[in-house]
Structures are given as structure tokens and as C-alpha cells.
Amino acid sequence: MMDAPTTPKDGTGARIPEEASPDAVLVRRTLAEIAPVADQVTSYFYALLFVRNPELREMFPAAMDTQRDRLLKALLTAAEHLDDAPVLTAYLENLGKGHRKYGTKAAHYPAVGEALIGALVRYATASWDAETEAAWVRTYTTISQIMIDAAAENEEHAPAWWQAEVVSHDLRTPDVAVVTLRPDQPYPFLAGQYTTLETPWWPRIWRHYSFASAPRPDGLLSLHVKAVPAGWVSNALVHRARPGDVLRLGPPAGSMTVDHSTDSGLLCLGGGTGIAPIRALVEDVAEHGDRRPVDVFYGARSGHDLYDIDTMLRLQKTFPWLSVHPVTEEQGRLPDAVCRYGPWEERDAYLSGPLGMVRRGVDALRGAGVPSDRIRHDFLAELTPASGDQPRSGACMARTPSMLPSR
Ligand SMILES: Cc1cc2nc3c(=O)[nH]c(=O)nc-3n(C[C@H](O)[C@H](O)[C@H](O)COP(=O)(O)OP(=O)(O)OC[C@H]3O[C@@H](n4cnc5c(N)ncnc54)[C@H](O)[C@@H]3O)c2cc1C
Ligand code: HEM
């Protein structure tokens, strides 16, 4: 039997807390060993999966592009967070539910598990032994069982996917479109959530898009899409989609929703099309008849890129509790602008936009005294927090270059 090292390190080099379970120690040791060759592990994992199970290949996109490492990355991340049960379970339940749209069945999980173990055996040569293998088998079984159970539960009351017809397409700038969809059956979601979407032009390529309004009585759904350079799905939605086209939607996801059990004010940061879910949150507060103070900081490169500012200003006129602060790059960075106002300690904070903006925003808000557990954002796919427990140096005085807004 192999002794666990006294000061084990995880894949990031950080010390593993004393209370890490024996399986977590072994799993993390494997992860540390394969970290430098992660790309090769990914390629080998898929090669094994498809050679041994050719019938699974057609479930995956034709081009296994840069996104191909998501499945393996999630497996590895989940294995790494093995001891953080509540976060892990919520993440995996959502993932399992979302896998229904790919056609994934419970019977497919062993094949993925075997390819995973096969890839680890090949690349974690220094630390692999029978005990490590047993730890990985238990870990994979736990992870997949949570996903399988969540999918089975979800099957009882929701379709695997929805078809949604484009009913209007409004080009707001040369590269931002507001797309309105009519789902083929009721699509229940909460303001602030997002969907996954597949277009007919890129089969099996799914991307996330946030809902731009709270649920409407007519059941229509609207999305704000920005065409990113060389982006497959975004360009199809902005430049090709027309009324009558039919898309597929996965289930709603995301926890950037309003907590109606409190009457704390809201502080919202939306960069680029990140304003879409923020607008939905404002509508949600209004519909609940709350009069909670809501401050929205809306950032974009230029005034022209603030494509939804008219709507936001109209909402501000209607609701005395709402303050909208447009911020262009000329005026400074979005997080810096937020720091010029305040205090924000008592607010629930919501951030949506490009990852760089969200990261810097989280740092700035922590620096401004907003507790971490009151900060919500939509990069939930990332299990790890946007930064360390402490705000990075600078926080409200951050001097990092702006990345607004590619989203
Ligand atoms: C939770 C969540 C919610 C989202 N909501 C929205 C939304 O409401 N509206 C919206 O427009 N987008 C949103 N996105 C981003 C969206 O999911 C896609 O990533 C985006 O549309 C690009 O997809 P694509 O297929 O066009 O580009 P891809 O084909 O994936 O990428 C093509 C190239 O563009 C680069 N790239 C990818 N994304 C960006 C980017 N954002 N900026 C610059 N370059 C990029 C890639 O690195 C690659 O080189 C959201 C993302 C997440 C995670
Ligand atoms: C514990 C097991 C698994 C984990 C952790 C996992 C994780 C993931 C993740 C994170 C993604 C990225 C997109 C998303 O969030 O939905 C993904 C995509 C996908 N997964 Fe899984 N998955 C697992 C098992 C399976 C199984 C058993 C199948 C069926 C063969 C499968 C098929 C797919 C397909 C087809 C995609 C989309 C392909 C793509 O976008 O590249 N997954 N998986």
C-alpha cells in the first residue's frame, strides 16, 4: 500500500487541506502528474473512446476543435473538487441534465470511464498503481451516478431539448442581433439564467446564450447575440438566422437569479451583451413589485456599442429605484467606474460579460467590501472561484488593461 505524502500538492501546486479524503489525495496526485501533458491525455482519451466505441462518435461535433477538452476537463475538475460535495453535486446534476440533449444514456457512462482510466494509465506512469486506479474508479462512479440520477429525474418532467422558431431578428449594430424565439412547448426558466443553443448550420455545436428578459406571458424568448470574429454559432445567429428558422435549445441553467427572500439592493455589472441577463433581472425585480435599489453599470467599448442603452434608460425613467450608469472605455474601466460610487457592502452583486471583465469586477467588488457569497456571475462552468479568497492587489484601484467587451 502506498503512503500518502505528508504535504501533498494539488494540480495547481497548492497544499491540499488536511481533511482531504484518501481518494482525493490519490486523484490529485494523478492530476498533478498529467497537468503538463493535458493535451496529449485529451487526444488519447478521445482516440480510445472512439476506437473502442465507434457508435459514440456521431454524438460529438464533426470537428473536435479547441472545445474538445471540455468533457475531460470537467471530469478532472470534478475529481479535483471531490471533497466539496454541495458545489460538486449541484454542478454535476446540472451537467447530467444538460447531457440529455446530446443523446447521452446511462449505458454510455462506462465507456467514457474506461477511456478516462486508459488515458490516465498511459500518462500518469510515475504515480499509477492499483490503489490509485481503485480511487479513480470510485471517483468516476460517484461523478457519473450523480449525472445519471439527475438525468433520470429530469426525464420525468422535461424534454431533452426544445425546438424554437426564430420569430424576429433585429440587427442592433453591425455585429449584435436581438433574436426572438418561440419554443415548441413551454420553456420554464428564471430571469438571469441562460440556455444552450444549437443552430441547423452547425449540428452538434452548442453554445450558451442568456435570456434578455424575464419570462413573458406570451412565452417568447429573446437573446442578444454578438458575432465574434470567426465565431461559428454567433455569426450564424447574427448574419444568417431569419424568421422561420428553427433552432434547438437545451435546458435553462445558471444561478445568477434574484433572491426574493431578501430586500437587499442589487448592484449589476453588464459588459457588451452581458447586459441581456441584467435587463432580465431588472424586469424580475419590477414584476415582484419590490422597490429595492438597483444600480446597473453598463459597459462597452464606445457609445455605439451600448446597443441597449435606450431600453435601459427607459426602464430608469419608469422605475425610481433604478439607476443606470453607462460606461465606455473612454470613461474608464467598468470596475473602476463602480468603485467611484457606493457604498456597496449591503448589495447583492451580479456580473455578466466577458470572462476578463467578470474576473476584474469580482476583484473590485470584493475590494469594495461586497462579501463573496453575495457575488453572482454566469461563468458557472468554472467550478473554481474567479480568483483567490482575497481580492487581488489593487482591487478598486486595479490597473489591468480592459477587455471590454467581446461578449
Ligand atoms: C454563461 C454564458 C452566457 C453567455 N451568454 C451570451 C449572450 O447572451 N450573448 C452572446 O453573444 N454570447 C454569450 N456567451 C458566449 C457564447 O456562448 C459563445 O461563446 C460566443 O457566441 C462565441 O461562440 P461562437 O461559436 O461564435 O465562437 P467559437 O467558434 O466558439 O469561437 C471562434 C473564435 O472566437 C474566439 N471567441 C470565442 N468567444 C469569444 C468572445 N466572447 N469574444 C471574442 N472572441 C471569442 C474563440 O477563442 C475562437 O478563436 C455566453 C457564454 C457563457 C459561458
Ligand atoms: C462523468 C462523466 C462526464 C462528464 C464529467 C462530462 C462532462 C462534459 C462537459 C463539461 C461537456 C461540455 C459541454 C456541457 O457542459 O454540456 C460535455 C460535452 C459532451 N459530452 Fe460529456 N461528460 C461525461 C460523460 C459523457 C458521456 C457518457 C457521454 C456519452 C457518450 C458524453 C457526451 C458528451 C457530448 C456528445 C458532449 C458535446 C460535445 C462537445 O460539445 O464537444 N459525456 N461533457
TrEMBL record:
Family: Belongs to the globin family. In the C-terminal section; belongs to the flavoprotein pyridine nucleotide cytochrome reductase family.
A molecular function GO annotation: oxygen binding
Stretches assigned to the FAD-binding FR-type domain: 159-259
Reaction it catalyzes: 2 nitric oxide + NADPH + 2 O2 = 2 nitrate + NADP(+) + H(+); 2 nitric oxide + NADH + 2 O2 = 2 nitrate + NAD(+) + H(+)
Protein name from the UniProt record: nitric oxide dioxygenase
This protein's record includes keyword Heme: yes
Assigned keywords, A-Z: 2Fe-2S, Heme, Iron, Iron-sulfur, Metal-binding, NAD, NADP, Oxygen transport, Transport
Organism for this UniProt entry: Streptomyces gardneri
One Pfam family from the record: FAD_binding_6
Chain residue ranges for the region called Disordered: 386-407
EC number(s) given by UniProt: 1.14.12.17
